[in-house]
């Protein structure tokens, strides 16, 4: 992957993604920079990080700088029977950065589809997640899972509620041995593990994985979820989609389709999302919802590593240089697609491709880098 194939900064990504979401009828959602802290206390496990910056308002209420956007959208929207609210956002959130591991103001972009969502609405969100990654970099993978299938497979084992979280952790880590040990300790036979082990061992292109699952999972237990997954994937034509049942978001909030997106060069997901009807229910809502977020702080770290030069050209001049000649020279260079800074001396630590000096009306090349 080259620099030219990757959107170079947060601003470029935001601009490109806003155009994409607007073209599918998503409206921009604007919100305050802070919410009452209680909103995040009640939904701590929904957050990427439980580190929240708080302050006391003038009325004595404990407030928080917003660490998440989805919770604010759910709080500030309402159910309208038969309708779907489609919104996108580019907002700053305040939390521990995945790249610096310290508090940071992070630009987050994403979209939410709330209301009477159906398979079309879900497939549209999946398609936009794949297209979002494609707009950022051609070297991407979008992993997709279905918590309905996973939940049914876990239920089929008969594992206790106490061990369920440990089992989910093993599934998320693709730790088949750990699953077998947990179930053995609870006296669960090998036969009951077949559906779960089938899902855990199924990874790859949708067509191949779906064909395998249809032959091994019973229609009575898995049919509806499997049918939905197959239907949604049939209308999302992307060679970069992979079915991966280790993609697990908090199952007390999420149900159905869940997503994680990756681009080459970043070891963790830059996109995460899914269907969160259960969170809507916890908020007292009767409708469903699905969405995703893109973490641009990770993208910023990658682009900063890949940018070899800060600028193409440093053009040196002195106090005797004719103003019009200097202005015309800068315009000629920028017209060639070069970035240019006109300076009387080379700025400290600036990385440049070429160093030029303007002598009267002639340009002298002092230094050139490949």
Key descriptive features of the protein:
370 residues, alpha+beta, nine-stranded mixed beta sheet, 13 helices, 16 strands, elongated
Walk me through the structure.
This protein has 13 helices and 16 strands. It is an alpha+beta fold. Strands 1-5-6-12-11-10-7-9-8 form a 9-stranded mixed beta sheet. A 4-stranded mixed beta sheet has the order 14-13-15-16, with helices on one face. The two termini are 18 Å apart. 34% of the residues are buried. Helix 5 runs antiparallel to helix 8 (190-200), helix 6 packs antiparallel against helix 7 (176-185) and helix 7 (176-185) packs antiparallel against helix 8 (190-200). The chain has helices at residues 10-23, 37-41, 70-75, 119-136, 147-157, 161-172, 176-185, 190-200, 206-216, 219-234, 277-282, 296-306, 323-335; strands spanning 27-28, 34-36, 54-56, 62-65, 84-96, 103-115, 140-146, 203-204, 241-244, 257-263, 271-275, 288-295, 311-316, 340-343, 352-359, 362-368.
